[in-house]
Design a protein that fits this description.
The complex is a heterodimer of chains A (about 400) and B (about 325).
Chain A lengths: L3 E9 L5 E10 L4 E5 L6 H9 L6 E6 L2 E2 L10 E4 L11 H11 L4 H14 L15 H13 L5 E5 L7 H18 L2 E6 L2 H7 L2 E6 L2 E6 L1 H6 L4 H6 L6 E10 L2 E6 L2 E4 L2 H6 L10 E6 L4 E2 L12 E11 L3 E8 L7 H9 L4 H4 L6 E8 L9 E6 L5 E3 L13
Parallel strand pairs in A: 3-8, 3-9, 6-7, 7-8
Antiparallel strand pairs in A: 1-2, 1-4, 4-5, 9-10, 11-12, 11-14, 12-13, 14-20, 15-19, 16-17, 16-19, 17-18
Helix pairs in contact in A: 2-3, 2-4, 3-4
Chain B lengths: L19 H5 L1 H29 L2 E3 L5 E4 L3 H9 L14 H27 L5 H9 L6 H12 L7 H8 L14 H26 L3 H9 L4 H12 L1 H16 L3 H6 L11 H10 L3 H32 L1
Antiparallel strand pairs in B: 1-2
The chains are: A alpha+beta (about 400), B mainly alpha (about 325).
């Protein structure tokens, strides 16, 4: 068991692509560290550099006390679980799990004991003599896990191990892997593009984008205090609503002007984000999580300055709650992604959105809500939970030195 | 074969079952396969039966059967025809023995060389170029290969490149295909040169079919390059290796053109093989004897073919 640390690591491919830049990150001993980000963000490359399957272009990676830059994969004492499971097709489940032990010339009885122990933990006992092709996806996944845990390595590296499973099995395996990792206590680096997996499994989550680390924090902190628009929008499902607004002063307090409506900010909200004051009279991007929007007929005592007006475009009933898509009188925020999309299409973001004055936001309403599709409605906003971002830099607005 | 099973019983062993199309819609099925079946009958089955019939007789120069002699052609082949099989000397000699040498040397060396090049080529940057070079001889007709290697083996060091090379090292030139003790190896080597490309291409393609992640998994599991080859790649290549081996064996049992052009079976009968003997005897007007040799050649090939077919069938059932 050991910690896994990146310091100033970069990966530059032969064609000049920078897949990972200046990555500094430490997975503590026994920690479950999740690398999450959209496809192409460099998370898998980062993992493969730890495994030794990808050369490290710059910086260094440590496993325990040892810098492993020049160390061959076989000598790094890590176990990797691949997206495709990568089971040895010609070997039985038993032999798949025993493979690494046999390579290390372990004692036969010891191998047998450890394989059977791993099989027991993973419920693979009745399948030991089967070949991988005779297994279901979930069983294959378990064999891949078995192959990793039997090694008792310094670290587990997992590359989207659940993405080939169906939704139900994924939820189940998610819990099993978390539990297994906690029981064994081996430092784990887990790569996924699924932010739900990241939130539910990780002790800490590292969000990456375009090869750059955006934020590392425990899941709840990531959710409550995203450092920039990207993290705010990426973490959480449905995603955080991002709209443009202006910050103004009215009756001594700050208000957020969203089109024709205004939301009043509490003093505590402002004091938690002292830097907000400097944005007075300027544009900001306001982030509203879907659960902070509610039907006022449910949240009855919401005052008028905590409300928006929206047109119900779509009402998705999920049984326990409603997802309500509302068109509100405010500009959608032009995030960096939108700018990039526009650049690829050879236009500007403003043109692409047609200078839209109407953002569509998603609200997570109580199932008791009586909103009707195609009608206008009032929307109650939990203003204490608003997020603010600087439209210029994309950074979240907290206190001035953050 | 399940001779004990009742006719039409459902308990036939797997893989032996007739395709259900025959039972369901017999005449329609034959409508589709009829033309192909007819061609097979006319071009393969009929000549085969005729050959077997010929092998029990003597023929005149117009290849008409003049006398039925039973199995005498076969006994002649294995006892009296010393250029076909001579067990009186040690080591035994004759066309059949030469053919066995071919089978062993040519098959193993072509296969191992092909495998080696396939594995090594996958690790270099100029893989495509390297494979193309090795594959080129495959595109050359065997008769042309014979001409090329005649030049290589030419006794005159000013013409023959091999002798040119060894004479610069101070050795005397060797008449590679003019001496009974070297001629077979010289021929076999030339044929290996022409066939390694085939083994390499098939095995290289199969090697590419092995998932890169499986190799990487082995690597992180602690396997070195040799372990990866022996424990992962080699077992996963067992089917293509069997296919290549069978192809090489069948090819070598039938080997004819290269020898015929380079040495004609000589010097003396030193480089005779089954097929060359067969053609020679045919030219001598010994149609019956030639037919008997052809039958023996076929009997040698049948078990290999049977192995191949069974191998494919078992792959299909389990795979």
């Amino acid at each position: 068991m050991a910690e896994v640390a990146f310091s100033d690591v970069a990966k530059i491919f032969a064609d000049g692509t920078r897949a990972v830049s200046d990555l500094t990150l430490e997975g503590h001993d026994g920690e479950f560290m999740v690398l999450v980000g959209p496809s192409g963000c460099g998370k898998t490359t980062a993992l493969r550099m730890v495994a030794g399957l990808e050369e490290i272009s710059e910086g260094e990676i440590r496993i325990g006390d040892r810098v492993v830059n020049g160390v061959a994969p076989r000598d790094r004492d890590i176990a990797m679980v691949f997206q495709s499971y990568a089971l040895y097709p010609h070997l039985s489940v038993y032999d798949n799990i025993a493979f690494s032990l046999r390579l290390r010339k372990e004692d036969k009885a010891e191998i047998d004991k450890r394989v059977r122990d791993a099989a027991k933990i993973l419920d693979l006992e009745p399948l030991l003599q089967r070949k991988p092709r005779a297994l279901s996806g979930g069983q294959r996944q378990r064999v891949a896990m078995g192959r990793a845990i039997v090694r008792q390595p310094a670290a587990f590296l997992m590359d989207e191990p659940l993405s080939n499973l169906d939704a139900k099995l994924r939820v189940q395996m998610r819990a099993e892997i978390s539990k297994l990792q906690r029981d064994i206590g081996v430092t784990t680096i887990y790569v996924t593009h699924d932010q739900v997996e990241a939130m539910t499994m990780g002790d800490r989550v590292a969000v990456m984008r375009k090869g750059q680390l955006q934020q590392v924090a425990p899941p709840q902190e990531l959710y409550d205090h995203p450092l920039n628009i990207f993290v705010g929008g990426f973490i959480g499902s449905p995603a955080m609503n991002l709209v443009e607004a202006t910050l103004e002063r009215s009756n001594g307090g700050l208000i957020v002007k969203l089109g024709s409506r205004a939301l009043a900010l509490d003093d505590e909200n402002v004091s938690a984000r002292p830097a907000l004051r400097s944005f007075e009279g300027r544009n900001v991007v306001v982030g509203i999580r879907p659960e902070h929007l509610e039907d006022p007929s449910v949240a009855r005592d919401t005052p008028d300055d905590r409300r928006l007006t929206g047109h119900v475009e779509l009402r998705e009933a999920l049984g326990s709650e409603l997802m309500v898509h509302l068109r509100i009188d405010a500009k959608p925020a032009l995030t960096e992604e939108v700018h990039e999309l526009a650049q690829d299409a050879g236009t500007t973001a403003e043109q692409m959105l047609g200078g839209s004055q109407h953002a569509v936001v998603v609200g997570r309403f109580s199932a008791d809500s009586s909103v009707v599709e195609g009608k206008d409605t009032e929307v109650a906003v939990d203003t204490r939970s608003l997020h603010f971002f600087d439209p210029e830099t994309g950074l979240a607005i907290y206190d001035s030195n953050r | 074969m399940s001779s004990t099973a009742a006719p039409g019983s459902v308990g036939r062993p797997r893989g032996r079952r007739l395709p259900s199309i025959f039972k369901r819609q017999g005449w329609q099925a034959f409508l589709f396969i009829g033309p192909a079946l007819l061609l097979l009958l006319v071009l393969i089955v009929y000549p085969m039966i005729r050959t077997i019939i010929y092998s029990f007789g003597n023929t005149n120069s117009r290849l008409e059967i003049t006398r039925w002699i039973g199995f005498d052609n076969y006994t002649r082949m294995f006892t009296r025809d010393k250029s076909f099989l001579n067990l009186d000397v040690f080591p035994p000699s004759g066309a059949l023995v030469n053919n066995v040498k071919w089978m062993i040397l040519y098959t193993t060396v072509s296969l191992l060389l092909g495998l080696l090049i396939a594995v090594l080529a996958a690790r270099v940057r100029y893989e495509a170029l390297m494979k193309s070079i090795v594959f080129v001889p495959m595109a050359i007709a065997a008769t042309a290969v014979a001409i090329i290697w005649k030049f290589v083996y030419e006794p005159d060091p000013n013409l023959g490149s091999l002798n040119g090379f060894i004479t610069t090292l101070g050795s005397d030139p060797i008449a590679w295909y003019g001496r009974a003790d070297t001629v077979n190896y010289a021929l076999i080597f030339a044929y290996i040169w022409a066939s390694t490309g085939f083994a390499m291409v098939v095995l290289s393609a199969a090697l590419k079919g092995i998932s890169e992640e499986v190799i990487e998994a082995a690597r992180t599991d602690g396997a070195g390059e040799w372990d990866i080859f022996r424990r992962i790649q080699l077992p996963l290549l067992s089917l293509p290796i069997a296919v290549v081996t069978v192809w090489l064996l069948i090819n070598v049992i039938k080997v004819f053109d290269l020898i015929y052009v380079m040495t004609g079976g000589g010097p003396g009968a030193a480089s005779e093989v089954i097929a060359v003997t067969m053609v020679d005897e045919f030219g001598n007007g010994e149609g019956g004897y030639a037919a008997a040799i052809a039958v023996v050649m076929m009997l040698l090939i049948i078990p290999i073919m049977a192995f191949n077919v069974r191998r494919f069938r078992s792959e299909r059932v389990t795979g």
